[in-house]
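Recap quiz, item 2
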Amino acid sequence: MSEWYTNDGKDSDVVLSTKACIVRNIKGYNFMPRLDDKECQSLLETIDKAIDKDVYVGGNASNIDKNTILKLTRLQILGREASQMANPERKAFYYNDDVSLSVAVGAGEHLTVKAMAAGHDISVYKKAEEAVLDLESKLDIAFSENYGFLTSNVRLAGTGLKVLYTVSLPAISKTEGGIAALSQRVGQYEWSIYPFAERGEIADSDVYIIASVNTLGVTEDEVLKRGEMLISDVIKAERALRDEIASSKKDQSADIYGRSYGTLRYANMISRSEALQDLGWLRLYHDYDDTGDINISWNTINKLTMDILWEPEAPTRKNSQSVASQKFRAQGIRKILKGAD
Amino acid sequence: MRCERCGKELTNRIIKINGVTYCENCARLMGYDRFLKDPSDLLGNPFSPLDQIASSLMQMSELDFGNSTLTCPKCGMTLREFENEGRVGCIECYNTFNDNIVREMFKQQGNSEYAGRLPAQSADTDVKTAEIPQEIKKEAPGKQKEIEVTEKNEAPTKEEQEKAPAGKSGKGLTLEQLMKADLGMLSDEDLEKGIKVAADAEEYKLASRLRDELKGRKEGEGNV
Ligand SMILES: [Zn+2]
Ligand SMILES: [Zn+2]
């Protein structure tokens, strides 16, 4: 079965992925920060009974082997933060065959259901909702008429829903004041934008996450509608600026495009930020290159970008700059580009 | 908490602009210098525009952690722990920290009324992935206006603090209150007392709803 992020997605020149996350908690159990180990075992068992084994594989995190952890990181079920796998006996992960749908137990809230799709694809909401409805019918879910679904993190109380678009915005990033203007636009929709970076990291790419904020005072439908309006604006703005840069600075852009491809294709060692910068240029000028010399599909650009962003071999940036990891990364990229030639 | 622009962990100052959190460095890079002034400078300056003073005051109030020793009777979470982590320990915490939770929610959302779907009911949504025409190349120049926003860098204006939901009602609830109550929000104690109140008034349906709620919490097994 192919893995979800290697599928062709819509608007994949800008949008890497669309995700819908829904969190829920079970009545009768304290939330995770106050759940003792014994109760936690009982919670894991209760949820395990409710998980549809025809749809999902997986289970208690302490039984997941190292290779599967790497795979689940690359497929964006687990964050790259190593702390995600702390206390594995208190967590469980379930996922479907292409890993586009997953249920994490004990990762912040009792239940985190996540649906993911390549490119711009809001149908992920329905997919996540369907999975959650199934669990809601089998489990006693913490819910209040005033606050909606109750959560340990009070900022999620209400719908418990977050919609996230991961976008690559080389042209807006390279335009002076571009990101500031975009942040304001996003704020007007009451959504948020933040660079792809994890705790303690410096953002070193033009990849951003555009995420919904409100879980109270809005229906699920309103969240989705706003998100779709916002992401359309973002896609149009990024394309317009690529157009502007590619036409007003044609020679320079063509030059950097070729050099970026050359580096990715033939480098023996490459740092994470350099690879991401080069991929940003490939993305910016891809549709304007009329030489026909460079043959790389959007799918390949996106796969490489996500592989490097979620690089499972470098769960912390500490080792990701070492000679060994720079070589490992460069070889991985060369292999994929050679295959695409 | 970290800067939403560069991802750096925030150590001393937290600058919030339009709901986005920045570190000092990024706020400066993005031209938001006026937010970086010490709030006392602004207050001492008679020419400070009102919105600057208001936004500084809001920043200060965000950093004003209560030192109350309020503790959740069910899970032992203290108010201070909640304020430090933004996380509560159990359902009962929502009653215990009611005012503080609502304030926390207001920081993020203009409105604290729940408007989403009910458990086990599908949300009524027909949103389809928006169609965006691929071919917008070679349009008139000046396209970058798309992302220009005319508004100035207004401070967040979310202080329309609505009244906190009047959920909390102290010792034992009356029959009428029980009828209207959001059962998920009642404490175990309220439920126990409520069952008696309802039974005394021969409201057996209500009594059994209350009993189910209480039972669901104690067993925690749901109906798997
Ligand atoms: Zn910053
Ligand atoms: Zn509690």
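Chain B has nine helices and two strands.
Strands of chain B lie at 15-17, 20-22.
End of item.
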